[in-house]
Amino acid sequence: MPLNFANKLSLFRILSIPFFITPLLYYSPQRDFLRFISLGIFLVAVLSDAVDGYIARKAKQRTIAGTILDPLADKLLLLSAFLCLSFIRGLPKDLRLPIWVLIIFISRDVIILLGSVVIYIVRGELKIYPTVWGKLTTLFQTVTIVSLLLRIKFSVSFWSFAVIFTAISGIDYIQRGFKTLYQL
């Protein structure tokens, strides 16, 4: 079965990741324009996420592949951005994300993934529904990346909100997971 347009946009997001990472790897203060190239690629990828979601809903193009590809593309894009903005040594301190923030972001997703596997094994099916807390988490994580790449002085405020929403959504997903398991 050929991929629909919404799924192609999800694949585009995944394929854009190396093009987002590469300018950051070659960043230096003398080549400051490279962070704007990464920012542009990141923003196009984020925009493709919004467009793919809109198309999937309005054109009724929701597919099993899309339910896997869309969140996978989101997680891979955000994770690669967080890793780059935490570990690339050539980046100045105001472009870097503290390691403890990275650990919180990654831990939530690992817990959700492991919980999903357990639910699938126990129940034989897995229905994934995005929540308001999850959407707010993604929004603030995205704004964090943009604020760091723009070197906004108040980036700490954005990633602080991202940490708060990440924790809240993680707890919410854990509670939902337990409710799903106990509905046997």
Describe this protein with a few key phrases.
184 residues, mainly alpha
Q: Please give the domain count.
A: 2
Strand content: under 5%
Average the pLDDT over all residues and give the rounded result. Answer: 88
Task: Please give the alpha-carbon distance between the first and last residues.
Answer: 34 Å
Number of H- or I-type helical stretches: 6
Helix content: over 70%
Helix-strand layout with pairing:
Blueprint: H1 5-25, H2 33-58, H3 64-87, H4 99-123, H5 132-149, H6 155-181
Helix pairs in contact: 1-2, 1-3, 2-3, 3-4, 3-5, 4-6, 5-6
Describe this structure in words.
This protein is mainly α and 184 residues long. The protein folds into two domains: 1-95; 97-184, no CATH class. It has six helices and no strands. It has helices at residues 5-25, 33-58, 64-87, 99-123, 132-149, 155-181. Helix 1 packs parallel to helix 3 (64-87) and helix 4 packs parallel to helix 6 (155-181). The radius of gyration is 17 Å and the shape is globular.
Offer a quick outline of the entry.
The chain is 77% helix and 0% strand.
